[in-house]
Amino acid sequence: MIEPYWENVSIYDGYDVFRKAFDTLPESSQHLFAAHWAQSEIYNGGFDQFFDNSTGVLALEAIEGFKALGMPKIAALLKHSVDRLGETYPHDREERQEKLESLSEGFEDGLFFDLIDTEAGGFKIAADLYASKVLN
What we know:
Elements: H1 15-22, H2 27-52, H3 59-68, H4 72-83, H5 93-102, H6 109-118, H7 123-135
Helix pairs in contact: 2-3, 2-6, 3-4
Protein name: DUF4375 domain-containing protein
Organism: Asticcacaulis currens
InterPro entries: DMP19_C (IPR025402)
């Protein structure tokens, strides 16, 4: 559900370019695309890596993706982490990096690692179940 769009949606060229391509995807593919990128980056290097890298451009979309996948605890944890970066989420990577440097405490990576493997059966199961419901 995301493979046909993988090359068309760039997370590397700023929010406007990302959104223009992302908005052409079916909503279910948007959910899977954003949740996949978020879990992949956070699982690899924590919230700091997710927000510091280009992937942080899709944080708000990932929150919606996790909700759609039936993972409300992860969605809430990501929302809490997003909120720590300011009243208005910084889609610009450099602005996010500046906000990250100003934080006095780290993110709740451990909780994420626990939830991504357990909530709704774990990410892979939740994503597969979501995709099968949409396709049937």
